[in-house]
Amino acid sequence: MFAVLKTGGKQYKVQAGDVLRVEKLAANAGDKIQFNEILMVGGDTVTVGAPLVAGAAVQAEVIDQIKGEKVIHFVKRRRKHSSQRTKGHRQQLTLLRVTDILASGAEASGVAAATGAADARRAAHEAPAAKE
């Protein structure tokens, strides 16, 4: 059985036991999370969502929070000015192991939904304003 899930603006085709590197999620190592944005579920029968498959989910375990390879951005201006600039960047990633694919019954599983780091910061920032 396989599923196509959407997270971090990208789509991934996964099976149980796969290891993924996705954009950073708000979770710690050892946490169990669930992806609810499932575009397609396949196996004996294929179910294609319009745009999402209702009730489907992919459960995964967080292995670690890692950084990607370093990307160098080098700019050199020529002729009379001869200036140069170097910038580096390492993307924050989350390493996951897919444990289970649910074709239905995702609401009753009781596993926390996967949220990005930006969503978690936004929720934490808005929470004190709601209390006041």
From TrEMBL:
Keyword Ribosomal protein: yes
Keywords: Ribonucleoprotein, Ribosomal protein, RNA-binding, rRNA-binding
GO cellular component, one term: ribosome
Name of the featured protein: Large ribosomal subunit protein bL21
NCBIfam families noted in UniProt: L21
Function of the protein: This protein binds to 23S rRNA in the presence of protein L20.
PANTHER family assigned: 50S RIBOSOMAL PROTEIN L21, LARGE RIBOSOMAL SUBUNIT PROTEIN BL21M
Signal peptide: none
Domain of life of the source: Bacteria
Family: Belongs to the bacterial ribosomal protein bL21 family.
Subunit-structure text: Part of the 50S ribosomal subunit. Contacts protein L20.
Organism: Ruixingdingia sedimenti
UniProt gene name: rplU
InterPro entries xrefs: bL21-like, bL21-like_sf, Ribosomal_bL21
